[in-house]
UniProtKB/TrEMBL annotation:
GO MF annotation, one: hexosyltransferase activity
Family, similarity comment: Belongs to the glycosyltransferase 28 family.
Ranges where the Glycosyl transferase family 28 C-terminal domain occurs: 209-358
Keyword flag Cytoplasm: no
Chief localization: membrane
GO biological process: glycolipid biosynthetic process
Subcellular location: Membrane
Name of the protein described by the UniProt record: Uncharacterized protein
Residue ranges annotated for the Diacylglycerol glucosyltransferase N-terminal domain, each copy included: 14-183
Keyword Membrane listed: no
The entry's keywords: Glycosyltransferase, Transferase
Cellular component terms per the entry's GO annotation: membrane
Top-level taxon: Bacteria
Amino acid sequence: MEALILSCSTGGGHNAAAKAVQDALSRQGHHAILLDPYSLQGQAVADKVGRFYVDFVRTVPRLFGVVYKLGEAYTKLQEHLPHHSPVYLFQRKTARTLKQYLEKSQPDVIVTTHVFAGEMLTMLRNEGMKLPPVIYIATDYTSIPFTQEVQADRYIVGHKDIVQSFVAAGLPEWKILPYGIPVNEAFQSRMSRPDACRWLGLDPAKRHILLSGGSMGFGLDGMIRTLLPVLEEHPDTVLLVLTGSNEELQKSIHEKYPGPQIRALGPTDQMPRYLQACQVLITKPGGLSTTEACVSQIPMVLVHPIPGVETINARFFESHAMARWARDPEQDLADILREVLADPAPMEQAQATLQSNAALRTASLCSSLVRRKG
């Protein structure tokens, strides 16, 4: 079976979910290509689209929240409007290029983890192109604006309790499958905390807190300052700060905090092991990163949600007792961290209900839809 997986580089979660499905398909003996459709117009175009989104969210998050609210309002009104959204129409040029690619490659099934790519496929279908089965994977814990413009054969969502948000957006309930959000198999390969520490060269006798700003790097320096009193109270605790590819930030943290209790980590491909080695994760509530944490059963404290979808993600995890949400990190992050460190068991037990084999189930669904069509 030939599978095409479409994603876009607007944050890291879409690509990570897509890669998890690609790996699962490969393990089942299928050939799967992962593609950013904007790259068909040149990698510079794909980079520009991704960079615009990330810069927009990072520099003016409140404005992004306003735009998200407008998108939600448009979703509610769209069934009464005679035309498609501007977001849908924006995909027209790339959709034409994607059509040429599909005519040459002839995949047996298409999986998309991004609404933009989903809209491109819908546009081609509306123009009369015959497509193979299409599976859309939602990578947040709600139906985001414009999801209703994606015509897919199946929709995979993160949890049974969010199915109704997709139904409310106008999607047929029988097509919605609450498999969970696909994550890399490595997050499900359990390793004991001491073994994970030794794997990473960390001291198993110490407690480790992992601080992440996600792929966009929100507010790390301010949160470190907020957590200094907790570190002073617990000299056996080490704060590991994920700075990603931001070398300037990594250098700054090393210079400001030269002691042994704060370590800045650069780019890493060992995220599954860090989640298994640490006692608590402090992170923004991206759909993929929170799912990876739950699968790893590491207690979470959520901070700095992007207004809109990540606020909804934070509300979901807090309401299901899978995380705590520090709404004002400067005021409440340290106290919440103390509480989680003192009693992590209830959160770990709640997270056990979200154990996900979504990638393998999605791969099997691909095969099933192809057989059914054949």
